[in-house]
Write a structure and sequence with these properties.
By secondary structure, the protein is mostly helical. It has helices spanning about 25, 30-45, 50-60, 65-80, 85-100, 105-120, 125-140, 150-160, 165-175, 180-195, 200-210, 210-215, 220-235, 240-255, 255-265, 275-290, 290-305, 315-325, 330-345, 350-359. The chain folds into 3 domains: about 1-160, Alpha Horseshoe (Serine Threonine Protein Phosphatase 5, Tetratricopeptide repeat), CATH 1.25.40.10; about 165-270, Alpha Horseshoe (Serine Threonine Protein Phosphatase 5, Tetratricopeptide repeat), CATH 1.25.40; about 275-359, Alpha Horseshoe (Serine Threonine Protein Phosphatase 5, Tetratricopeptide repeat), CATH 1.25.40.10. It is built from 20 helices and no strands. Helix 3 (about 50-60) runs antiparallel to helix 4 (about 65-80). The longest helix is centred in the N-terminal third of the chain and has 20 residues, at about 105-120. It is globular and about 55 Å long. The two termini are about 30 Å apart.
């Protein structure tokens, strides 16, 4: 499974039940706040299904999928048809499937599909359910029920709720299906509708930089467009960590590592999730070989403090730290960092490769 299935965790809107409304914080990526607020609600009202669902989605956004699954189960035990709880369990199952990378992952992937399908039926307004289900349909084999046709149907369902997100999902599905020319108009329309939306920017740049798109455009043209589009899209999202990750990755893949570093460094003081920007700076240092000592310092700070979600999480931070330490010739420290990553995610492919290269 490709990690793109997990990207929509970053925005998980919930139904409002009384004064407890975690939607704005989830949409802003304030997962630690959502977790604290949900736990406060549960201390006063342990049978609040919405609070359990909110807690589950916050935990999954923080890469704590097992705990997220448990919280979703609590929510569903209290309110079996709560769309937000079905979504929460689907996201947790999808996360566990990616982490497990074995036969058990097929069971979790199948369960995730079932939950996401039920969530969209129970509440067709759930943007994240449509996005996650569409990507899952495109990436999972037919034996689990996946297909491009079903994925495009999800884009249509999402478009009725959020036009820009529906268009970006359609573009992502078509690009994964190696139909870049068909995908481009949908991305263009999404960016006109919502140039400030980090998920729109991320979905577009991630697809533009993909292996499938490289086959269509060629290496040189892909790099040229990545750099040009990253610069064009930066102004309205320069404080949004999620979009900055995509912009910096695009610049790095285009061979503009120093520019990517400068963009991330300048955003650090005003970004909505500084911990994610620090993690990105560590990633840039590890991949480019530039600013290694500074990148290492940023990663150390990430590992000391709470990390606001992200697709890499703490295992990714340890892995990037190990890569930098290896490049600095600090082999034993690099091994220790790789080991820390593998303790958190025993099947982390990057950490496994790093450890093998150090032995």
């Amino acid at each position: 499974m490709r990690p793109r299935i997990l990207l929509p965790f970053l925005v998980a809107p919930l139904l409002v039940a009384g004064p407890f409304d975690p939607r704005p914080d989830l949409e802003a990526g304030r997962y630690l706040k959502v977790l604290a607020d949900a736990e406060a609600q549960l201390r006063g009202e342990p049978r609040n299904a919405l609070a359990w669902a909110a807690k589950s989605q916050a935990l999954s956004s923080l890469q704590r999928f097992g705990e997220g699954y448990g919280a979703a189960e609590r929510a569903l035990a209290l309110q079996p048809q709560l769309a937000d709880a079905l979504l929460a369990r689907g996201l947790a199952r999808a996360g566990m499937a990616v982490q497990q990378r074995n036969f058990s992952s097929l069971r979790n992937a199948s369960g995730a599909l079932d939950d996401l399908e039920q969530a969209t039926k129970a509440d067709p307004r759930l943007v994240t359910a449509w996005m996650s289900l569409g990507l899952a349909y495109e990436q999972l084999p037919g034996l689990l029920g996946g297909s491009t046709r079903k994925a495009l149907e999800c884009a249509n369902g999402l478009r009725r709720v959020n036009a820009a997100r529906g268009d970006v999902l359609q573009g992502m599905v078509l690009s994964m299906d190696e139909r870049w020319r068909e995908a481009e108009p949908y991305f263009g329309r999404a960016l006109v509708l919502a140039p400030w939306d980090p998920e729109v920017v991320y979905g577009y740049l991630d697809s533009l930089g993909s292996r499938e798109t490289r086959k269509q455009l060629g290496d040189g043209e892909q790099k040229r467009r990545l750099a040009a589009e990253a610069r064009r899209l930066l102004p309205p999202v320069r404080t949004r960590a999620r979009a900055l990750e995509a912009i910096c990755d695009a610049l790095l893949d285009a061979g503009q590592a120093e520019e990517a570093w400068r963009v991330a460094k300048e955003a650090l003081g005003r970004a909505d999730a500084p911990s994610l920007v620090r993690l990105q700076l560590g990633k840039l240092a590890a991949r480019s070989g530039l600013h290694r000592e500074e990148g290492l310092a940023f990663l150390d700070q990430v590992l000391r403090e709470p990390l606001e979600g992200g697709s890499a999480g703490y295992p990714g931070a340890w892995w990037r730290k190990g890569q930098i330490l290896k490049d600095l010739g600090r082999k034993q420290e690099a091994k220790a960092a790789a080991w820390e990553a593998l303790k958190l995610d025993p099947k982390h492919p990057g950490a496994k490769r790093l450890m093998e290269g150090l032995n």
